[in-house]
Known about the structure:
The chain contains six helices and 17 strands. The protein is of the alpha+beta class and 296 residues long. The strands form five sheets. Strands 6-7-12-8-9 form a five-stranded antiparallel β-sheet, covered by helices on one side.
Amino acid sequence: MTWPIACVRPQESLANHTSFRIGGPAEWFAEPSTLEELQAVLREAHRRGLPVSIVGGGTNTLAPDRGLNGVVLHLGRGFRTVEDVSDPQAPIAQVRCGAALLTQRLVYLAATHGWGELEGLAGLPGQVGGAVMMNAQDIGRFLQRVTLIKPDGTVREVPREQMAFTYRDTAIESGLIASVLLQFPKVPPAESYARIRSALQHRNSTQETGLPSAGCAFKNPPGVGAGRLIDLAGLKGARIGDAQVSLRHANFIVNVGHATCDDVLSLMEHIQREVRRAHGVDLEPEVRMAGERWGP
Length: 296
Ligand SMILES: Cc1cc2nc3c(=O)[nH]c(=O)nc-3n(C[C@H](O)[C@H](O)[C@H](O)COP(=O)(O)OP(=O)(O)OC[C@H]3O[C@@H](n4cnc5c(N)ncnc54)[C@H](O)[C@@H]3O)c2cc1C
């Protein structure tokens, strides 16, 4: 069966859309570039009774080896917009971003235009929409408003007062983020550039950047780094199939060849067991499974 919408294609490998390079095919992969196209996809998915899930940059995502049924939404180029809507006299910058904007493009523009306090986002892979859903690097503190597309295709503006930001999570009503309004203090561009550069250097010297991964596999328990607990449990280099605990940063699981989703999940379970045995601490996954249902 085909789709009446050009931006939808069948059997697209999710390994091509996750930084882990893992995952089977999406039954239908939709890359809408306009709001109208997105709404048409949602209507058709609803008509066919298909589940809809969302993948952004796929850098915090583990996709199942068997793939996913239904429609996987991945916002296209039309959602990579960025617009400075600041009042030139005001001491704050207001920036409207499409949800598919690469977070690193935002960081680059911050260094150029003097938007302050973005150094925490320097080097963070993925897209702005995904970063907001994960509250990655506490991006929620900049958020003013989100434009959300509801499962029935209606558009809703959600103000910051109706969201809650916690460590690696944003609580927001269900829907797809189409765009966000962010607010930053204005600073001299040279200052913004210097801070971003230094944060990037720190990140590159401490994190695993050479091998496919989804960043930290587990959230840090209160007061202690998950990586330190994993390292102390003697798990650096532990391997199941082609999934391995990074030798550089123990909270990163890396794909050293042709790792499967099952390899990664088995290794995560092994880590959780060993850390519980060694330290009495339960590690909670930070990586999310693709296919978490969205909408009805
Ligand atoms: C090398 C490396 C380093 C990393 N370092 C960090 C770090 O320092 N700090 C940190 O917090 N994270 C880090 N991460 C994890 C990841 O990069 C961030 O969480 C990132 O912000 C996720 O963005 P994404 O677009 O890739 O999200 P995805 O992985 O695509 O999605 C994450 C979640 O958001 C949902 N989602 C995505 N887009 C939308 C949308 N438009 N509307 C609604 N829901 C959506 C997805 O369904 C999923 O549930 C790292 C990852 C890697 C690979």
